[in-house]
Amino acid sequence: MSKVIGIIAGSLRKESFSRKIAKALLPMVPEGFTFRIISIEDLPVYNQDFDDHDHVPESYVKFRDEIRNIDGIIFITPEHNRSVPAALKNAIDVGSRPAGKNVWDGKPGAVFSNSPGNLSAFGANHHLRQSLVFLNIPVMQQPEVYLPHIDKAWDDNGNLKDEDLKDFLQKAVDAYMVWFQRNSGS
Ligand code: FNR
Fold this sequence. Notes:
Helices cover 38% and strands 15% of the residues. By secondary structure, it is an alpha/beta fold. It has a 5-stranded parallel β-sheet with strand order 2-1-3-4-5, with helices on both faces. The structure holds ligand FNR. Residues 11, 13, 16-18, 78-82, 115-117, 119, 121 line the site of ligand FNR.
């Protein structure tokens, strides 16, 4: 059976560049693997009472199952105020609980950050890595994937037109697959 790599775009925005990057990665999947985009848009803000008092929202149950059923995970994060967007942090928190049932545990990961600006969401990239250490996601070190001026990369139909960026993303995906094999125990 093919291994499944989840892709999460850390934005709720309809025309999100992060979502466009997630879609652009789909055809880059190597043979024997499946890339699956996982939505974070239906998750209410995490409240521990949901877990403690048996009021777990259906969307949490679905999301936690989706993460349990993937073998690795690529995060595409934009940056909000030099950190991880709340919607993405929320999804990470939802998957991390209840205590002792962290669904992220041990799944090899990668962080790709992007911004219309020239700092490429460096702050979000590294804040995200801090949480992933705690959740025991071994995160690819190299290449670091910082994508600046991402608003310029698309044609009118939302397809990736920047060939250099396409090549770099393919190299990053290839490196991630090596990282995945090394860290997945498969
Ligand atoms: C931003 N943006 C932004 N960009 C950046 O490079 N560094 C930052 O700290 C911030 N801060 C920030 C805060 C908030 C609340 C918003 C709404 C936006 C701009 C951001 O990069 C831009 O809106 C992107 O288009 C968001 O990513 P998506 O939705 O295109 O994936």
